Amino acid sequence: MQWEAVIGLEVHVQLATASKIFSGASTAFGAAPNSQACEIDLGLPGVLPVLNEKAVEMAVLFGLATHADIPERSVFERKNYFYPDLPKGYQTSQMAEPIVGPGYVDIPLEQGGIKRVRIHHAHLEEDAGKSLHEDFHGMTGIDLNRAGTPLLEVVSEPDMNSAKEAVAYLKAIHSLITYLGISDGNMAEGSMRCDANVSVRLKGEPKLGTRCEIKNVNSFRFVEKAINHEIERQIELIEDGGRVVQETRLYDPDKDETRSMRSKEEANDYRYFPCPDLLPLVLDPAYIDHLRSTLPELPDQKRERFTQQLGLSDYDAGVLSSSRALADYFDRATQLCGDAKLAANWVTGEVAASLNRDGLDITQSPVAPEQLAGLIKRLQDNTINGKAAKQVFAALWAEEAHTADEVIEAKGLKQVTDTGAIEAIIDQILQDNPAQVEQYRSAEEDKRGKMIGFFVGQVMKASRGTANPQAVNQLLKTKLDAL
Ligand code: ADP
Ligand code: MG
Questions:
Q1: Pocket flag, ligand 1, residue 155 (CB < 6 Å)
Q2: Ligand 1 pocket, 93 CB below 6 A?
Q3: Whose CA is nearest to atom 22 of ligand 1?
Q4: What is the atom index within ligand 1 of the atom nearest the CA of 209?
Q5: Domains and CATH numbers, the chain
Q6: What letter does residue 363 receive in the DSSP assignment?
Q7: pLDDT in tens, 350-377
């Protein structure tokens, strides 16, 4: 039987406002517990919330970047439930009339091409506090600092059909929110959290299967694993004659399994109703147009510019546009050295590998784009060869010097193109290796090409990598063949 997985994601994005969504309390991460929750965040009697305009602006920017309708009017509602980390007894959210209407994002597919994933809507809401189960023995600690932090919940249509597509969608959302600067996107700190809805059906079946919701899978890797695991569980269950019941499941990364948290029957009825303390939000079309005019160049536009105008491959363009900081780094290096392809090679090559090795982000790169461009220029004007360039890069990375020129000078890496100097080295090498010379001489013509590599290596080594490789090859061949 041919099964098809169907996946819809609900992504919570923590917005990077300085203060809470309805109060002036700080949203800074890492403060002492309960030092950043005010009367309004706690919903004490008699207080009134005031909507944070920055949160509205960020939600609208997200909507515009996802080609969404921005309705003129949206409404805040109370979602009522009891939980220790929610002292108000309700979460202020949006339901019937969200701030962002239907939109979409395009995601790259592994087999090539793109897929459009529709976004059903996105709404603003406040976060709850945090229960800390591990810090106290036999007790649970409650930290209300997070209460009232603005969240944008982005709800997709069930348009994804594999865990890989779900991850690609998440990455697209992650890239958008960081490009827009509306969230730091830090998944480890919970700035982007995801619930995955998963169902399966036979291929060709028009009706959706019964879904399960996997709560709070908080890394790209866990999303992929949790979804794959859930797809397998559901298929096995159905093939064994059972049926999927709609429920919420929790992913356990240690055991790599999902387990039931609550079923639909136990699900809460939240008794949503419009919040009497907050007026409906009405947005002036001129305000929305103004925000539209402030949109930065977005990932899709960057990718297109990189391929169409700069002539990069789809792959390089995809990698370089995946983060705004990386794209900015590449753009700056290109601007300074004037060669986009060389800059792309270095950024996706040495720079990316070194960042990866040292566990650094592009913003923490010890080599600034200005320094990289300085290095590339010395390659372009043939001051150094490719081998020496790698040494220069390593020295800049280790912060041994500030500019490529300083490294070239200090290490004597200037490429030797002077044929006299190269010839002198060659003569020495030939003299030192009579056996190899003899082998070469007695070898057939078609074997000689390979054998010359030995001499090239020796000469390069003797020149500490500074000899011009083309000149070395040429001169060696002439000398050997004349013997
Ligand atoms: P609820 O009201 O229970 O939150 P929604 O209709 O809002 O349910 O859907 C929540 C998420 O679940 C959306 O992202 C949606 O795409 C997804 N979803 C809905 N039905 C299915 C299904 N049968 N299989 C997979 N995902 C689904
Ligand atoms: Mg929902």
A1: yes
A2: no
A3: 211
A4: 23
A5: 3-286 (no CATH), 297-400 (no CATH), 419-482 (1.10.10.410)
A6: G
A7: 999 999 999 999 999 999 999 999 999 9
